Amino acid sequence: MLDTGLSGLNALVTGGASGIGQSIVVGLASQGVVVRVIDIRSAADSLAMVREVGGTASAVLVDVRSEEQLETAVEDAITELGAIDIFVNVAAVYAAQAVTRLESSVWADLLQVNVTACVVACKKVAAHMIRRGRGSVLIIGSTVVTAPSYAGAAYRASKTALRSYMETLAVELAPFGIRVNMLTPGPFPTGLVRDLPAEQRTAAAREVPLGQREGDVSELRAAALFLLSDKLASYITGSELFIDGGLHLRPLYIGPVEEVRELNQ
Length: 265
Hints:
This protein has one domain: 3-Layer(aba) Sandwich (Rossmann fold), CATH 3.40.50. It is built from eight helices and seven strands; from the N terminus they run βαβαβαβαβαβααβα. The protein has helices at 19-30, 44-52, 67-81, 104-132, 153-173, 198-206, 218-228, 257-262; strands at 10-14, 34-39, 56-61, 86-89, 135-140, 178-185, 240-243. α1 (19-30) packs parallel to α2 (44-52) and α1 (19-30) packs across α7. The mean pLDDT is 93.
């Protein structure tokens, strides 16, 4: 088995109760990393999966919309774990609204959860890592940044901002030996797409060059461990790794003009 060099480290993961976050939590725990999960939902399933692989993890209920809750959770993790060597930002929400129907509350919520929460957490985590002179940060992006999606203005704006923030974070933390990277998934069966019509998910999967299918969250795990490992990725920072079956290489689907008009009528 490949030695990632992660054993004995401590990690803080937002959005680790399900989906992509859960897969990364289990992957880290399987490598001997002690993991603290932050999520608005119960992480009982994630903790059970960690126990199955012989790992150690704990969880705390936090709504990342609350800067006070989030800052407290980060501070508590540092105190209780002793240190945070790894930070993974997964927490995100999705909403689809056409541009003429986009509600201010929806716009604000997506930016708060998808961008501001990451900034708030990284502010605390980065200060801690700077004092220690080490650390690795992984931010989960989205292939939506590569092409506009109908009714996706707010979500795309939030993920584009997150990508820009990741790059600035990387260059500012590099002098302290802290690496920052982005893992960008394509279509995966997570909570973000759970409520989408089946035909929409099927159509999206058909656009994936490699296999014309949704990915399995387990297919993200090795890439996440690679980017987080100082042993395996010591010279990588400010990079974005797509795990999407080549979806970001596909041109934007242009639907029938009647369907496009209906979005805003």
